[in-house]
Write a structure and sequence with these properties.
Low-confidence stretches: none
Radius of gyration: 25 Å
Number of strands: 8
Largest sheet: 8 strands, mixed
CATH architecture of the largest domain: Alpha-Beta Complex
Structural class: alpha/beta
Shape: elongated
Strand content: 15-25%
CATH class of the largest domain: Alpha Beta
CATH superfamily of the largest domain: Spore Coat Polysaccharide Biosynthesis Protein SpsA, Chain A
Mean pLDDT: 80
CATH topology of the largest domain: Spore Coat Polysaccharide Biosynthesis Protein SpsA, Chain A
Order of helices and strands: EHEHEHEHEHEHHEHHHHE
């Protein structure tokens, strides 16, 4: 029988762990064609998650657990867990159960039909208007930079063993969906509505999403760097044309210009904002190069059970 591993990244999810296992065990019973296991990938939780999982692992061989030496972020947590998978396929689900476990049955069905990557495509999600607005802006901007959409979302997806093996040949990418997309395997989406979180609170705040979005925009593309070059040419052209206009207006059209202190200040401030923007873009790329050796290292596993 083929084995499927369900990967669940956690950080302080003690309220959800037992229900997560219970809900997925119900799904496992409905499909007896496969052997199932759950691998919890713990980002050094500081609540009771560790103790709960240690106790559960001692009683259930199909529940596996790895704990990192510190919090390395959810994407590296997932990537490291995938690198520790030896089964025929794996699925990734968040512990909050907002991505319904029934999705796994649809994932498996599409996998059996030959697709190597199956991912959930959220139709509705309960979030603030501001978050929805920024999310849409990110998707449009990301498409403009790349020329294609990254459809895979980090909430729930399914990978064949060929994808898993291929991922093991790559260094870690902070925007994991883009890395999976670039592998080029056949993929299909499963549409669903995301439900509300039942227990606890999300550990991802606005600034966490912002950092993730920045990683997404510069991951696997140099287009942001080229934008700064295009803008520099554009403003050079505008400056050149403006200089010609003022010379013609002053010496040939006899137009008098008042001293525009306000205009000068606005132009200077706008110019400085562009300069800082472009330095920021350059800084992001330089930072990625500087931190490359450290960022590509997988987290040190401090503890593991049933692996």
């Amino acid at each position: 029988m083929k084995e499927i591993t369900v990967i669940c990244p956690i950080y302080n999810e003690q309220e959800n762990i037992k229900e997560f296992i219970e809900k997925f065990n119900e799904i496992f019973i409905k499909n007896k064609k496969f052997n199932f296991s759950i691998l919890f990938s713990d980002n050094a939780s500081i609540d009771g998650s560790r103790e709960i999982l240690q106790e559960i692992c001692q009683k259930n061989n199909n529940i596996k657990y790895i704990r990192y030496n510190k919090n390395h972020g959810v994407m590296k947590s997932i990537f490291t867990a995938i690198n520790n998978v030896t089964s025929d396929a794996c699925a990734v689900f968040d512990c909050d159960l907002q991505d319904t476990p029934e999705l796994l049955l649809d994932f498996i069905k599409n996998w059996e039909n030959g697709y190597k990557i199956v991912y959930g495509k959220r139709l509705k999600r309960k979030e603030s208007f501001a978050m929805s607005f920024f999310r849409n802006i990110f998707k449009k901007f990301s498409y403009t930079l790349r020329g294609y959409n990254i459809e895979i979302e980090s909430g729930a997806f399914f990978l064949d063993k060929n994808v898993i093996q291929d991922l093991k040949n790559y260094d870690f990418d902070p925007f994991l969906p883009a890395l999976i997309e670039r592998l080029g395997f056949s993929k299909i989406s499963v549409r669903y509505d995301r439900i509300e979180r039942k227990y606890g609170q999300s550990k991802f705040n606005f600034f966490g999403y912002l950092s993730y979005a920045i990683d997404g925009l510069i991951s696997g593309t140099i287009q942001p760097l080229r934008i700064s070059i295009f803008c520099s040419f554009l403003f050079a052209l505008i400056s050149f044309l403006s200089a010609i206009y003022f010379l013609i207006a002053k010496f040939y059209l006899n137009i008098l210009f008042a001293e525009g202190i306000a205009a000068i200040i606005i132009i200077n401030l706008f110019s400085f904002s562009l300069i800082f923007l472009f330095f920021g873009i350059l800084g992001e790329y330089i930072g990625k190069i500087f931190l490359k050796d450290e960022s590509k290292k997988l987290p040190k596993i401090a503890e593991k059970f049933n692996l």
